[in-house]
User: Fold this.
Amino acid sequence: MSTIIELKNITKQFGKGDERVTAVDSLSVAIEEGEIVCLVGESGCGKSTTGAMAAGLLPVTAGQVLFNGKDIATISRNEYKEFRHKVQIVHQDPYASLNPTQTIAQIITTPLRRHKLVHGRKAAYARAVELLEIVGLTPAEEMMTKYPHQLSGGQRQRVSVARALTLNPSFIVADEAVSMVDVSLRVSILAMLTRLRKEFDVTFLFITHDLALAKYFSWHGGRIVVMYLGRIVEQGPTQRVIQNPRHPYTQALLSAVPEADPNIARTKKPIELRGADIPSLLNLPRGCTFHPRCPHFTPGVCDADVLPLIPVKGGGFVACPVIN
Assistant:
């Protein structure tokens, strides 16, 4: 398999002077065709910013975003048009990402007609109905006449997925795609995304703060990348990261996941952190940014320099020499 998207030492900063914030710091990850990569971390860690840069919605401050080996900042106009076709994003908020003044028919048919993927209104309408049926919105004909405010959160998110599919993408950034959907509907939407990945041969960058969702979505052959304050602290095959997390932050995230089995829940010991406060992005600690909270903090090692990612047994990398 070839690499479809590569993020190469990308950095994103906001603001100027003393108020400059580094949201993403020298992040690198390569995503292969057909792969599921889950980007996991707490709110504010930079994962949504990373997704926006991968989708071409935000320019990088430094580094490169490569699409099929070419830097999207320097490719030709026709190549960039192809990139916009092949890379789509499903936003977190289905209440804000759909135009409230348009019917579902208009929302789905507009990209089809604007990019000349169909000929005529009837063909666009028929394709839109087909896409709504594919994402499980039935009866599709009835849905076409509705406005976003007439749909539930889960239905709106399915419309967002259908809109993303209009351009026949090969890569989809799903940014917290189920976080604002009712808990009872999350599994059904994840199952739909899994089915679409197989049917349409789509590569996914799935962004979430919930390791349990990442586990469910990428357990079979996927990969998890864990971020903390703009940097990758651990990455590897999903099964290895879940069963044998190597970074203290990953271990803390897993320990915070509720356990359904009462027998396991009674014996599960939560990770006790040194502190609960997350450092400010305006004044990041030297070295590993997790060290003010880390139970394995080692003076002179963790607070010295930025720690490189080192290989670990079972696949992947971790930015922690202390417990490895």
